[in-house]
Amino acid sequence: EERCTGCRLCENLCPANIYEMGSGKMKIKKERLSYCFVCRACEVSCPTQAIAVIERA
């Protein structure tokens, strides 16, 4: 989160719509987290490597 520049790439690319802008940084909408299917579009597109997707077992 500290590396986030607020470019909104993750928000624009996430097919599950789990990101939202908050205080100039992207935040995860916790109520939508279950919709994430680990496509990693956000992680791969982040220019500052601020996102690390961790698969849940």
Can you walk me through this structure?
The protein has a domain at 9-45. Helices cover 18% and strands 14% of the residues. The chain is built from 2 helices and 2 strands; from the N terminus they run H-E-E-H. The protein is α+β, with helices and mostly antiparallel strands and 57 residues long. The longest helix has 5 residues, at 9-13. The model has no long low-confidence stretch (mean pLDDT 92).
Spatial sequence of strands, sheet with the most strands:
1-2
**Cα Rg:** 10 Å
Instruction: Say how many strands there are.
Output: 2
Shape, per Cα inertia axes: globular
Oligomer: single chain
N to C succession of SSEs: HEEH
Question: How much is the average pLDDT?
Answer: 92
Low-confidence stretches: none
What is the terminal separation in angstroms?
Answer: 23 Å
- Major β-sheet annotation: 2 strands, antiparallel
Query: Helical residue percent?
Result: 10-25%
In what range is the share of β-strand residues? 5-15%
Q: DSSP helix count?
A: 2
- Going by helix content, strand content and strand pairing, the class is alpha+beta
Give me some keywords for this one.
57 residues; alpha+beta; globular
Short note summarizing the structure:
The chain has helices spanning 9-13, 41-45; strands at 19-22, 25-28.
List the helices and strands and how they pair.
Blueprint: H1 9-13, E1 19-22, E2 25-28, H2 41-45
